[in-house]
Fold this sequence. Notes:
- With 441 residues, the protein is an alpha/beta fold.
- It folds into 2 domains: 2-42 and 383-440, Golgi alpha-mannosidase II (Immunoglobulin-like); 46-375, TIM Barrel (Alpha-Beta Barrel), CATH 3.20.20.
- Helices cover 26% and strands 29% of the residues.
- It has 10 helices and 21 strands.
- A 10-stranded mixed sheet has the order 2-1-21-18-17-16-4-19-20-3, covered by helices on one side.
- A hairpin with a 5-residue loop joins strand 16 and strand 17.
- It is globular.
Amino acid sequence: MKILTTQIINGQIIENEQLQSLHYDKDGTERLLLNLYPQIAFQTILGFGGAMTEAAGSVLCQLPEGERQKIIESYYGKDGLGYTLIRTHMDSCDFSLGNYCADDVPGDIEFAHFSLERDNKHIIPFLKEIKRISEDFKLFMAPWSPPAYMKTNNNRNGGGELKPEYYRAWARYLAHYIKEYEKAGLPVFCISTQNEPKAVQTWDSCVYSAEQERDFILNHLRPALNEEGITPLIMIWDHNKERMLERSEMIIDDKTNGIVGAIGFHWYSGDHFEAISLTHKRFPDKLLISTEACVEYSRHAREDAHKHAAFYAHDIIGGLNNGMHGFIDWNLVLDEKGGPNHVGNYCEAPIMCDTKEGKWYKNASWYFIKHFSKYIRPGAKRIGHSLYTSQLEACAFVNPDGSIVTVVHNPSREEIPYKLRVYGHISDCTAKPQSISTIII
Length: 441
């Protein structure tokens, strides 16, 4: 078997690869075990990915062309993270250069003024390149706000609700948006009804109750998509985990069950892994996708390297072990300030760029995400495991090619031994302090 390890020591990223043998467990080892049970299978993995925002695209455009290509390859190329999922926003979000929408003319039911000028400058070209190099391109799209005139607060920012008289118009707007992307050669796999429908933000946002979201999907969005002859999955919620079960139960019923295909969630309200598990048990045929995750920008990135990377490892393992089918990080790249962001909501990305120098570097989170995305491939099935200690976190999978992949995370500052056991064979292993390892059998 092969063991790939990334360890962070005093902010330094150290990668190591070693080969190790499995031998027959003739003595029936009982202690220090990490057991794998390939005969017990759970959910099928859709994939991993990140988000191409206007902010990310504008940062890439400030780099030399060769460096832009290297960054895209480092995510979606076969020698990179192996990403296959990509998310983008419909009209502006906080990680845009400012508020904008493709058509803000009231009454323009034929979309005569509709324009994807902003998308064509900073988003669509990079999506096309990602599609070209990705082995299994799946595009997720989400709106942050309808045009201001459609909302009760007459503003893209600050929450507000969609006015009832504009439900059909907004649904047709979203369907037209997707149709234009498909004309550009970018098929849309999934559309969310609304990013964070419970949040009133200082940036682009819109509030829906569960009843409003259900009505919009059933009576307006699905019919509008059908009229355009397009069939992306419809995702509900797309907000934090703590309410994903109740929200799903309020939306999915006999009428909407065949319409809703996915439930999205974010990590900003805490672990709530049990909520993922309960939602998966309640709605086993729905894709459960973590659609957004990031940490706030820090000037002390070196000192915080392991802490931020460990957030990702902990959340991805917790999500996968409770029924999550896919994970999508937030911005693919950001500048040296953690932006641009039109309301100053600065964050970190796995790759940060120095736009003045035309250079870029990988944060520790990039290396930790790799242990999942590169080796757990689309179509992999999670398998059972048991672990002797809560000091370690682990998850395990069987890939479509038959390889067994186990990810082991040690967030502590102590070296922790364990014995990997599978099919009656065993191998002595060690989880180094503040490390993550992928074991491939």
